[in-house]
UniProtKB/TrEMBL annotation, chains A, B:
Tree of life domain: Bacteria
UniProt KW ATP-binding keyword: no
Stated name of the protein: DNA-binding transcriptional regulator, MocR family, contains an aminotransferase domain
SMART domains documented for this protein: HTH_GNTR
Length: 469, 469
């Protein structure tokens, strides 16, 4: 076994140094044995070790191939221009969709939440139980905006550690990220105002625009960088935009993260054009690798950014505790909160404080990221191997969504409905865009174990795409 | 002691039969001893027993008086007419107020929540702890509108038991009653619509009207019945009212409950004028005596009533789980919910189901009612004895608020600010009405033990009223 590890290490370096390129076929077992002088069994063990490390993948009856590591992502579609959308009507479709994938017998590839098996922390639940047992009065401070002071402090410290100077009073605790986003939007926009959104974006964003009766300017994705700075500035020049709402890390549904240079330039443009940004950073903790991505908030000298996030994507929907970070608008947001959602359960806030005060959360995040990366890679490889060539499979190293472009003749909403009859949920692009040219994409939740059941379901999805009835 | 009990029983009957009337002075100890032939000590013991039963009260250096039992409530002020209010601005004052009474060193006579010592059910908390310990997945159904089916079923059953035929799907679970009320209002009214409100009402109602930009018609209280049917119909005739928002049981802040005949007539008028009613019935369980009051919903043949309530006033703000009951609008309310608060913590919903499925809740309610009645009566007697005569103290047999009319020259907002410096919170009428003629009322939360500390604070309030600085 020692020899196998040695060989694996050598090959690992070849791949890392780029000598062997992604999708390149590895020498056959026999060739490799001959070249290296190792036994066939040793070579097989080495290849399997590389596969376990996620560096290579096996294709049936064909051999081993180098996996995409720093995958140069497939370029996104270039949609020519930004457009004005005045009468958004997304909510009813979203509502029916969410109801349809709700039954427990529907495989949750369409869900927006990560696999709960990865989230249910025994330690956290133990703390909740302890708090519930204590007969303390949790009524006073935590049940009013801005929420529990000790929780504000802990969140502020996490920002400060990333280099964003933050005071506890800059943080308003909310009922999840969507509440933070909605309150932020209400704080800066009123019916009829102009808002800039990414052309493809999480349905909650569309619903918020619909609810407030906003005029929406859509910004197409940049094929390479995800975010098109040039078009962004054009929009700021052309339209009386009051506020933007952007997702730049682990974008939902596509998955890309925008690089830090672009974020810095966005911050500069916001300051220059005096436009607010609602930054939806709910997936900020779900990066793969060692470096947490920055946010536009990091570059926000001019207090234009309302930075929103939550614990619900790392601890589960049962911990729908979010927050918004903005010094000057904190009071206004609390005023709005007092007229609507008021506060998160004090019990959950107190339990969270205990959990976050220790290293439990960091430990949980590390393990969550590793597991998500493993699942996502296995899903990606399976899809890449079995989907017809005309499909594009977009893999980015963060989060748990994979975005797939189907052949243009396939209507993804119809596909979703067909798959429902097989008890499989997928998220069609109609949930994420109002652009009629983009109805052939789907988002898959890849946070699940690739076992017989899930693999069989993926096979059904692929089969239905390949041979639409 | 047996003799004393016998005498107490005899006198108890005299009071019950109305031979001795409320506020009538009892014979002095000496007179009673002479008449009855009992010893002075026996008479004293009997009087003390009656006092403990809440039937008589002692006035210093004066003797014993019969307490108001079926108190004929003091007539409310007659404010002449309904008025149109187009630009409600209540939220900022409410916000500052709630912040000001939040510190734990402020005595919570101004709070809207009952004394948490009466609410923290060991049994309920034990169930929460059990649920938290189980590593179940609570993510799926309970985290989407309309909430957990088993909770809908239990609430529906409670309605049916009161004679209101209800299906589980008529119930939408919300984040507390205020969320239910706000969602209901959004479901039936849009900015600029006309809404009818009681002239004196819970600030959340004003905030909701402010938030939606509604035109508010205020309906003055009926001096005797609390609700003025005649003026109500006049308003429905005069204004294009889309929806009413009323509180008819254990009205906050005044405390009255409207009788069932009036509720029935309200239902008829709603049907006739095709107007919706948002019925805030959050205190429905806090009646004293044996009969639960009905609601307008009970008489609602025409589906005009959105009936809203919650567990937060019986189980605490930590259990901010409410609901709205309306068959036809259920789907629309869920759509709105999906764009805002989404759902209550599944953990709390599951724990509630377990708690409500047993007799724990009924037992808790019975004990809560008895304790609230005891506290409220003791507060009332103390206030009645010590407040200057020109103050009216409104006592009604439900809930835990006492509404006090001060002499007209006293500004209750100033009084509240002065008392804050003594670390005492009270709720001034500015929180409940936009009528400038009514700034000399206060609401006291009387759900606390009348001990040395609370009595001393009441004395400070009375002192400040009697000798304003």
């Amino acid at each position: 076994m020692f020899k196998a590890e040695q060989l694996a290490q050598t090959l690992h370096q070849l791949i890392e140094q780029g000598v062997w390129k992604p999708h390149q076929k590895l020498p056959s077992l026999r060739e490799q044995a001959q070249t290296s002088g190792y036994s066939l069994m040793t070579v097989l063990n080495a290849y399997q070790e590389l596969e376990a490390r996620g560096l290579v993948f096996a294709r049936e009856k064909s051999g081993y191939y180098v996996a995409d590591q720093n995958m140069q992502p497939t370029a996104l579609d270039r949609i020519e221009d930004s457009t004005l959308q005045s009468n958004i009507q997304m909510n009813s479709f979203v509502f029916d969709y969410l109801k349809s994938i709700q039954p427990t017998n529907i495989l949750p590839f369409g869900s927006a939440f990560p696999n709960t098996a990865l989230l249910h922390q025994p330690k956290l639940l133990q703390i909740v139980a302890q708090h519930a047992r204590r007969k303390q009065s949790y009524e006073s401070s935590a049940s009013m905006p801005p929420g529990l002071l000790t929780l504000q402090q802990i969140i502020a410290r996490r920002y400060s550690l990333q280099g964003i100077a933050t005071e506890p009073q800059d943080i308003v605790i909310t009922s999840g990220c969507l509440d933070a986003l909605n309150l932020s939007l209400q704080a800066v926009a009123k019916p009829g105002d102009y808002i800039l959104l990414q052309q493809t974006i999480f349905y909650g964003t569309w619903q918020a625009a619909e609810r407030l009766g906003l005029n929406v300017i859509t910004l197409p994705e940049h094929p390479e960088y995800g975010f098109d700075l040039e078009k962004f500035e054009q929009c700021l020049q052309m339209y009386p935009i009051k506020v933007c709402w952007l997702m730049l890390n682990s974008h939902n549904p596509i998955g890309f993260s925008v690089n830090d240079d672009i974020k810095q330039k966005i911050a500069q443009l916001l300051a220059h054009y005096q436009v607010y940004l609602i930054e939806d950073d709910v997936y900020q903790e779900l990066y793969f690798g060692s470096k947490k991505p920055l946010s536009v908030k990091y570059f926000d000298q001019d207090h234009r950014v309302l930075h929103c996030s939550s614990f619900s994507k790392t601890l589960g929907a049962g911990f729908r505790v979010g927050w918004v970070h903005h010094r000057k608008l904190s009071n206004q947001i609390q005023h709005l909160q007092l007229m609507s959602t008021i506060a998160v359960s004090p019990l959950l806030q107190h339990a969270l404080v205990d959990f976050l005060s220790t290293h439990h959360y960091e430990k949980h995040l590390r393990s969550l990221r590793l597991q998500l990366e493993r699942h996502k890679k296995l899903f990606y490889r399976y899809l890449k191997q079995h989907l017809p060539e005309e499909c594009d499979v977009y893999y980015y190293p963060s989060g748990y969504f994979i975005w797939i472009k189907l052949p243009k003749h396939i209507d993804s909403t119809q596909l979703y409905q067909t798959l429902l009859t097989h008890h499989i949920g997928i998220a069609p692009s109609q949930l994420f865009t109002v652009n009629r040219q983009q109805q052939h994409f789907i988002r898959l939740n890849c946070s699940f174990e690739l076992n017989d059941q899930t693999q069989h379901s993926l096979a059904t999805i692929i089969q239905t795409i390949t041979h639409p009835s």
